[in-house]
């Protein structure tokens, strides 16, 4: 709305012929939003200002705006005075049609004026406007009776005068036909009431639920009839007890906490912040069991046909708000969901369920999967990428929640390690399925985000000693390594580089025989560590050593490509161009996703050199090789060694927030790390060495 309002204000000051586009669609959209949601005080003030000042908007647009001035709150004295001041004759006054609309609006909002007395105070101004026929239907006076004859509006007013002041003799004036005064627009008033009710309910929820929360939610009027979850109500209270309804602030809550009587229907906890606080500070298993029973009864009513499905989703919407606010699912609620998933076919408000289960408790994964997550997958997964991404996002959120729980746990639960590694392993298999059904960059991003969440277990100073590293599936790593996105490759390398710290920490920790669940040298067998080291070696072979797909090095996997396939690819490349070789095609200079970044880094060096040295007359044509750099130096180009070039490419990537590749290479090759982190003089000395 803000953008449309600003556009309308600008257009009101711009002649129609000077506008690039028609303002009518914007006005239509603005008035529609005003009708649906109402106007906040600032927006109302600006629109009234637009109507009462000279404007280049057409009369139809101005009338539409005037008809939709629905305030969400009380109308300020300032706005009322602006409207009154706009009435009458004058070049700077709005048209009479707009004045009529504004005057009617003032009558219709009389009951929501912040200062109703402002109209009585402005009586003298209004009285002097009675000679304007267009606005007279709402302003009358006995003094004009001789001039206006049998004006029906005037007669109606005089009849009112006669009722209140019988001593005034009116004679024949009130014998004409004139109906009693009527409200200008009943339907407009009803719409205004709906808008203000909705705004008041939201304001009450925000102020009490989010900001205060030390009073029970008290909802009256029509809103009370719309409640799905019952409100807090306490009856049959002991003489020395205190009810939640009596609590007015935090002090009263704290002083009486031990004396507060639980309400009749504990399911009110789903929608009442004060009751939530009470059960958080005074845990009560029976209370949550009663809530679960209530939820089960709602589900049973839907199954039996005694309630429609919409009712169930309205209840689950309240459950979602409760869970998101408390950031936990009471374990007893899981009993309800286990039953619910037996009946649910995955339709309806799926997002409610996924948001709720994002806060699943840290249980044994197999138990949670068997009773909750597997039935959920059966209901939701339909072989479509969208449903698979939804489940992947759920597992990312669960992992995030479990990590947050563990970071505040003391001690770490014994089952935490097995539960988290099982969750990561299961999500890895789901990710492989997703990469087959929907090999898109958005899916890659969703998968990478999951594993970036997982590396928090390695980066956390406490959790790294208790949670074992669960590597992504090998197929996933190599799919990402040959991805078409440099961002995906960089993020993958960053994840693998972080894992190296975890492995090194475990290898340096002596094994214990005291039953401790801490990670130590015995936590990983040699084959598992070699598997990880092979990933690092393959990536170094591709990007740095120009030995892509080689399996000759210790631990290298050759990117897990069968040797006959490598032989055929090698022959094919040679048949296309004998100057190329298969292993070099995935280096920094030739890699499909890195070649552009690499030549750009050279161009930046050349630009800097040319700016300071006019003797530079040749640029590198690209792609860069060790041989082409030697020729460049002798043909009037910049002096750049092969090692300097590659390090400059890595630095350039890091400056563009693509530092994962450099991080992995540095962590894998010590001499490269020393060179990149060294001072310029020390680096120059190291670069004279060969560390290919």
From TrEMBL:
<dbReference type="Pfam" id="PF07778">
    <property type="entry name" value="CENP-I"/>
</dbReference>
<dbReference type="GO" id="GO:0000070">
    <property type="term" value="P:mitotic sister chromatid segregation"/>
</dbReference>
<keyword id="KW-0158">Chromosome</keyword>
<dbReference type="GO" id="GO:0000939">
    <property type="term" value="C:inner kinetochore"/>
</dbReference>
<protein>
    <recommendedName>
        <fullName>Mis6 domain protein</fullName>
    </recommendedName>
</protein>
<keyword id="KW-0137">Centromere</keyword>
<comment type="similarity">
    <text>Belongs to the CENP-I/CTF3 family.</text>
</comment>
<dbReference type="InterPro" id="IPR012485">
    <property type="entry name" value="CENP-I"/>
</dbReference>
<dbReference type="GO" id="GO:0034080">
    <property type="term" value="P:CENP-A containing chromatin assembly"/>
</dbReference>
<keyword id="KW-0539">Nucleus</keyword>
<dbReference type="GO" id="GO:0005634">
    <property type="term" value="C:nucleus"/>
</dbReference>
């Amino acid at each position: 709305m803000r953008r449309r309002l600003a556009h309308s204000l600008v257009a009101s000051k711009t002649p129609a012929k000077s506008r690039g586009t028609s303002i009518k669609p914007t006005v239509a959209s603005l008035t529609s939003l005003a009708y649906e949601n109402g106007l906040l005080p600032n927006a109302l003030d600006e629109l009234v200002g637009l109507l009462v000042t000279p404007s280049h908007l057409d009369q139809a647009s101005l009338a539409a705006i005037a008809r939709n001035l629905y305030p969400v709150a009380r109308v300020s004295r300032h706005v009322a005075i602006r409207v009154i001041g706009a009435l009458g004759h004058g070049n700077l006054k709005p048209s009479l049609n707009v004045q009529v609309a504004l005057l009617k609006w003032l009558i219709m909002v009389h009951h929501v004026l912040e200062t109703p007395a402002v109209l009585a105070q402005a009586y003298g101004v209004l009285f002097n406007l009675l000679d304007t026929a267009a606005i007279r239907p709402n302003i009358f006076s006995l003094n004009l009776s001789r001039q206006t004859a049998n004006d029906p509006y005037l007669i109606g007013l005089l009849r009112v005068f006669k009722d209140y002041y019988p001593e005034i003799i009116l004679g024949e004036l009130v014998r004409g036909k004139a109906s009693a005064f009527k409200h200008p627009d009943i339907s407009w008033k009803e719409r205004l009431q709906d808008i203000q009710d909705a705004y008041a309910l939201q304001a009450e929820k925000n102020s009490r639920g989010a900001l205060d929360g030390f009073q029970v939610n008290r909802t009256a009027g029509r809103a009370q009839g719309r409640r799905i979850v019952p409100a807090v109500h306490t009856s049959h209270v002991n003489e020395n007890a205190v009810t939640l309804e009596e609590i007015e602030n935090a002090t009263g809550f704290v002083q009486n906490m031990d004396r507060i009587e639980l309400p009749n229907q504990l399911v009110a906890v789903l929608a009442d912040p004060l009751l939530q606080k009470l059960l958080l500070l005074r845990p009560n298993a029976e209370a949550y069991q009663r809530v679960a029973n209530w939820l089960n009864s709602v589900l049973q009513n839907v199954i039996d046909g005694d309630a429609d499905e919409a009712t169930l989703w309205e209840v689950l919407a309240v459950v979602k708000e409760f869970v998101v606010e408390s950031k936990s699912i009471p374990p007893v609620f899981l009993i309800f969901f286990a039953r619910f998933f037996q009946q649910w076919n995955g339709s309806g408000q799926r997002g409610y369920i996924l948001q709720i289960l994002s806060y699943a408790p840290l249980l044994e994964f197999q138990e949670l999967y068997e009773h909750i997550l597997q039935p959920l997958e059966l209901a939701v997964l339909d072989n479509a990428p969208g449903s698979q991404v939804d489940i992947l996002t759920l597992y990312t959120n669960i992992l995030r929640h479990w990590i947050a729980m563990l970071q505040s746990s003391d001690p770490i639960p014994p089952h935490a390690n097995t539960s988290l590694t099982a969750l990561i392993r299961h999500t890895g298999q789901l990710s492989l399925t997703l990469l087959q059904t929907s090999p898109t960059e958005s899916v890659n991003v969703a998968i990478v985000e999951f594993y970036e969440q997982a590396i928090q277990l390695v980066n956390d100073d406490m959790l790294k000693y208790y949670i074992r590293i669960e590597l992504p599936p090998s197929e996933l790593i190599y799919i990402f390594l040959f991805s078409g996105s440099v961002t995906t490759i960089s993020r993958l390398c960053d994840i693998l580089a972080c894992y190296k710290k975890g492995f090194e920490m475990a290898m340096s920790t002596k094994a214990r025989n005291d039953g401790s669940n801490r990670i130590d040298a015995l936590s990983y067998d040699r084959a598992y560590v070699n598997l990880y080291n092979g990933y690092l070696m393959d990536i170094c072979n591709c990007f740095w050593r120009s030995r892509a797909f080689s399996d000759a090095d210790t631990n290298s996997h050759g990117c897990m490509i069968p040797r006959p396939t490598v032989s055929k690819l090698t022959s094919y490349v040679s048949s296309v161009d004998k100057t190329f070789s298969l292993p070099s095609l995935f280096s920094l200079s030739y890699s499909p996703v890195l070649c552009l970044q690499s030549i750009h880094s050279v161009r930046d060096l050349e630009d800097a050199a040319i700016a300071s040295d006019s003797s530079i007359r040749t640029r590198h044509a690209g792609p860069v090789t060790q041989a082409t750099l030697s020729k460049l130096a002798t043909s009037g180009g910049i002096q750049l060694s092969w090692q300097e070039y590659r390090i400059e490419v890595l630095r350039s990537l890091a400056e563009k927030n693509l530092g994962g590749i450099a991080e992995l290479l540095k962590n894998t090759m010590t001499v490269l790390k020393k060179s990149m982190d060294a001072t310029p003089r020390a680096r120059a000395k190291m670069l004279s060495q060969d560390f290919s």
